[in-house]
C-alpha cells in the first residue's frame, strides 16, 4: 500500500508556512539569529534558529511548541480540504521534548502551565475536536516514526485518513546541554564541511495528511509514501552506529520496493556534528555503492537549525515541494566537503534545477533511533 499525501503544513525560523519556508531555503536564507529566549550571560553559544513569536528579547512564554503544532496541523488539514473538524481522524505527533520549555518556565518563574498541557492531545482536542491522538517521543527521528505508524494504521484499515506531525521548541535545558558539550560553539551549522563544529538548535513543526490510495473525487495528492525503514540499536546514548543507519536505509528500500539507483534526491539528516555527518555519509555510500554519485544530495539544517522531533517530517515536506517545482534547495555553509563525500552530487551554495520523482529522507536520533522514508511525486 502506498498512502497518498494530500496536505502539507510547516512552521520554522525561515517561514511560517510551507511556501515561505521553501522559498527561503531555495534562496539560501537561513533563520539563525541572536538568542531571544534565554539569558546571554549564561551561555557560550548565543545564536539559535528561533521562530520569532515572542513579545521582546528575553521574554519567554509557555506553550510555544503547542502553538507551532496547531499551526502546522491547521495548514495541512486546510491543504487537504479537511477544515478544522478532525473528529474521527487520528493525529500522531512526533516530538523530542513535548512542552518541556513550559515546564521549565513554571518551575523557574511560576509561569501558568497545567500539567495536562504537557500532552498535545489536550490542545488538539480543543482546536480540532480530535479524540484519537498519540505522542511519540523518539528524539530526532520521532516524526518519521509517526509517519510509519500512520501508514500502518491505514494499511490495517484502522483509519482512512491520518494526520502525522512533528514539533519541538528549543528548551533551555537542551540548549544548556549542547552548550556544555560544545565549549567552542559553532557560529554556523556546516553539514559535511571539514570545518564543522557542531549543531545549533531550531524551533519547528511540520504536518502531513495521509490517506488511503483511493482518493475522493477532485482530491489532489502532493505525493505518495513508498516506505519507511526504522532501526533502534541502543548502542550509545548519542553516537550513531553506521551499520544500523545503513540498515534503516535498506529497510526503507525493501518496504518501498525500490533500489538505491532509483532515488533522484537524498535529504540528509546532516546535523553538522563531527560524528553524525561522517556516519551518515559513509552509511549512504555503503548502501548506494556505485550509485552514490547519481542522486542530488542536500540538507536543510544549515538554514533551519536542528529542529529535533520535527526534523524528519520537515525535510520530507521540503522534498515534496522539490518534486512539485524541480527546485532543489542548497547545502549552504559547505565550503570544504569532507573526504568521505567525494564523488557525491552535493547541491552546494545555490539551488539547482533537477527533476525528482523519488526522494529518500533521513532522520537519526539519540540512542540509535533511526528512520528513513522514501516518497514519490505525483
TrEMBL record:
Ketosynthase family 3 (KS3) domain sequence ranges: 1-377
Record Gene3D superfamilies: 3.40.47.10
Keyword tags: Transferase
Domain of life: Bacteria
Pfam families the record matches: ketoacyl-synt, Ketoacyl-synt_C
MF term (GO), any: 3-oxoacyl-[acyl-carrier-protein] synthase activity
UniProt-listed InterPro entries: Beta-ketoacyl_synthase, Ketoacyl_synth_C, Ketoacyl_synth_N, PKS_Beta-ketoAc_synthase_dom, Thiolase-like
Family affiliation: Belongs to the thiolase-like superfamily. Beta-ketoacyl-ACP synthases family.
Protein name (record): 3-oxoacyl-ACP synthase
Organism taxonomic ancestry: Bacteria, Bacillati, Actinomycetota, Actinomycetes, Kitasatosporales
Amino acid at each position: 500500500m502506498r498512502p497518498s499525501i494530500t496536505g502539507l503544513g510547516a512552521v520554522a525560523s525561515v517561514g511560517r508556512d510551507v511556501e515561505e519556508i521553501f522559498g527561503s531555503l531555495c534562496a539560501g536564507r537561513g533563520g539563525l539569529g541572536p538568542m531571544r529566549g534565554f539569558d546571554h550571560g549564561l551561555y557560550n553559544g548565543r545564536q539559535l534558529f528561533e521562530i520569532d513569536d515572542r513579545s521582546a528579547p528575553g521574554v519567554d512564554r509557555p506553550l510555544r511548541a503547542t502553538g507551532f503544532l496547531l499551526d502546522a496541523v491547521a495548514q495541512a488539514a486546510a491543504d487537504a480540504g479537511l477544515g478544522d473538524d478532525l473528529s474521527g481522524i487520528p493525529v500522531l505527533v512526533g516530538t523530542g521534548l513535548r512542552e518541556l520549555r513550559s515546564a521549565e518556565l513554571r518551575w523557574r518563574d511560576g509561569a501558568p502551565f497545567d500539567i495536562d498541557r504537557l500532552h498535545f492531545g489536550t490542545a488538539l482536542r480543543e482546536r480540532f475536536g480530535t479524540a484519537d491522538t498519540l505522542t511519540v517521543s523518539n528524539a530526532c527521528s520521532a516524526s518519521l516514526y509517526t509517519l510509519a505508524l500512520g501508514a500502518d494504521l491505514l494499511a490495517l484499515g484502522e483509519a482512512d485518513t491520518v494526520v502525522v506531525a512533528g514539533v519541538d521548541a528549543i528548551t533551555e535545558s537542551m540548549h544548556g546541554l549542547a552548550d556544555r558539550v560544545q565549549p567552542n560553539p559553532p557560529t554556523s551549522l556546516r553539514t559535511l564541511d571539514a570545518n564543522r563544529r557542531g549543531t545549533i538548535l531550531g524551533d519547528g513543526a511540520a504536518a502531513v495528511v495521509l490517506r488511503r490510495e483511493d482518493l475522493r473525487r477532485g482530491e489532489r495528492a502532493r505525493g505518495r509514501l513508498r516506505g519507511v525503514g526504522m532501526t533502534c540499536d541502543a548502542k550509545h546514548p548519542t553516537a550513531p552506529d553506521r551499520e544500523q543507519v545503513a540498515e534503516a536505509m535498506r529497510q526503507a528500500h525493501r518496504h518501498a520496493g525500490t533500489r538505491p539507483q532509483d532515488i533522484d534526491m537524498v535529504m540528509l539528516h546532516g546535523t553538522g556534528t563531527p560524528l553524525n555527518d561522517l556516519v551518515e555519509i559513509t552509511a549512504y555510500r555503503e548502501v548506494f555503492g556505485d550509485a552514490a554519485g547519481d542522486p542530488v544530495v542536500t540538507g536543510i539544517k544549515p538554514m533551519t537549525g536542528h529542529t529535533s522531533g520535527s526534523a524528519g517530517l520537515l525535510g520530507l515536506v521540503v522534498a515534496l515541494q522539490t518534486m512539485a517545482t524541480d527546485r532543489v534547495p542548497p547545502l549552504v555553509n559547505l565550503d570544504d566537503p569532507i573526504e568521505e563525500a567525494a564523488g557525491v552530487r552535493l547541491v552546494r551554495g545555490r539551488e539547482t534545477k533537477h527533476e525528482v520523482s523519488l526522494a529518500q529522507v533521513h532522520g537519526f536520533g539519540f540512542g540509535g533511533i533511526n528512520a528513513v522514508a522514501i516518497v514519490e511525486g505525483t
